[in-house]
Amino acid sequence: MEGLLKFFLICLIMAIPAFCAPDWKWYTADPHIHAHTCNNQFTPVEDILVEMKKENINIGSILIWGNGGSLQYDFPNFRGQEDDPISEDNWKVRWDVEISGLPGKWHGHMMMLNVAQLDIIDSATGGVNYPGVEYQLPNFKYMHDVEGVLGYSHLQMWHSKYEMPSALCCQPREMPMDVTLTKVDFVGMEGFNDNFMWIWYGMLQGGFMLPIVGDSDYGCIADKIGAYHTAFPIPAGETLSYDKFIDAIRKGRTIARKNNTPPDHLDIRVNEALLGDTLFVDAESDSVTVEIDASSIVSGRQVQLVMNGAVVKSSTITSDLSTYIYKIQIDKSSWLAARISSGANDFSAHTSVVQVLVGGCPVRNDPAGARQWVSYLDKYYAQATAENYTTGKAAELKEKLDLAKAAWEDIALEGEGKKEMNCIEPVAIKQHVGDLREQVMMEFAISRSGLVHFGPQASSQASISIYSIKGDCIAVLSDNTWNGRDQTGVRVPDGLYFARVTYGSKQQVVRFSLVR
Fold it and tell me: Which tens digit of pLDDT belongs to each residue from 454-468?
């Protein structure tokens, strides 16, 4: 008992060796590598693996991107959701897809990771079998149905706030629509700059907790694999796999890093919440404890705690991995992240976020920005139709844009206090929680196939509804089992959900994580 007490006392010191951290082992990934490069050269997969080992990159996604050479040389290597045979225990190579030289690219370049179908691209004609050609929203359902993830690349290339990016290349023009209508799994960047910070932070301020990935775009932007890359953890003792990397993206347990030698280390926890989690605190609570693990071999670098886009705490770090602990005030729902800086707009690492919901209310911290996105979506539609990038589906795109504009308008009104937020107050998960006649509680189990079983007390006299983290009703159950799909039959991604059970005049909300 005395030893345990000493351990907790040690964990309250401001900067300590990072042995209080979760028992994770960290790996690295570069999800944006090209074997067939932008200057029409081809790098054999054997050479790519050599470079991955040289730069200590454990996971490499070689993206087929659609120009003639990429289709000719890359496509025969595509194996769906299987690693390239050259892969080793701690070095995994996978062939996936980037919408870059493929139809739909005008709306933004997209990284499609864990693609399943071998016929997604016709290597002879360049034809495609993904549905998001006229606009990209349908691609998300397509990828989620095959347990893949989909995100926008090149966020750092967005040049002007709330203005239409140039039609010449790359920028995620459609993303401000997609985040309101589906789950955008991640955003990628090949360099930290004001443009990237602005658009990513803007999405976070609206309540869209997009995980960040670092990627090199080797062969087109970077001259080495892993120049920017993603760090992600898996539980110590578990075997590395491509699926574990995809799962880390889904859960938001990702850190974008510049490849110093060795790269700076960074991680964040808020109370009991880990990187990528959502922490619920009572409306009466006024502070949380933040722990940041950090190290850098470059002297003088600062670890910075960022809350809602502003630096609220910082410390100078050393080459020794240490934990920096801060207690901060939280008076509204917020997002928190950590980054390492060596000066103005010069960052070497940035975590994804921990979301802190006060009273279960969503993050709504930039109503003026939300209104700007409404105006932006009008400009997007005007340019897309004027230049015929929708190829005949302008009316369908307009319908989706109107829904997105209404969502951003609601976010603005909620942020201004002019519309009531949909706040959900969850309770702790319990496996056996008593008698429904006395209190509306549920016991439940999640099967390996993803079925969520409620009962036995959830009977025909009780109704159960499933809600997303945004408060949207996903499904209303006709029996005690949820199959992990929404009301239209679409498979929902892994993540945090709520079950609201109503029994007579009583009701209870329970939070649970769906992990298949």
Answer: 554 444 456 778 888
CB proximity list for 173: less than 8 A, separation 6 or greater? 106, 107, 108, 164, 165, 380
Q: How far is CA 270 from the centre of its chain?
A: 18
**For residue 438, what pLDDT band results from cuts at 50, 70 and 90?**
very low
Contact 214, 230 (CB under 8 A): yes
Contact in structure between 338 and 276 (CB atoms under 8 Å): no
Whole-number Å distance between alpha carbons of 516 and 505: 33
Does position 84 have pLDDT exceeding 90, yes or no? yes
Is there a contact between 99 and 112 (Cβ–Cβ < 8 Å)?
yes
Judging by beta carbons within 10 Å of its beta carbon (0-12, 13-18, 19+), is residue 5 exposed, middle or buried? exposed
pLDDT number for residue 474: 85
Tell me how far apart the alpha carbons of residues 216 and 227 are, in angstroms, rounded to a whole number: 5
Tokens of 178: 């997609």
Cα–Cα distance for residue pair 104/315, rounded to 1 Å: 44
3-state secondary structure string across 351-383 = ECCEEEEECCCCCCCCHHHHHHHHHHHHHHHHH
- pLDDT category at 440 given cuts 50, 70, 90 is very low
- Cβ atoms of 204 and 184 within 8 Å: the answer is no
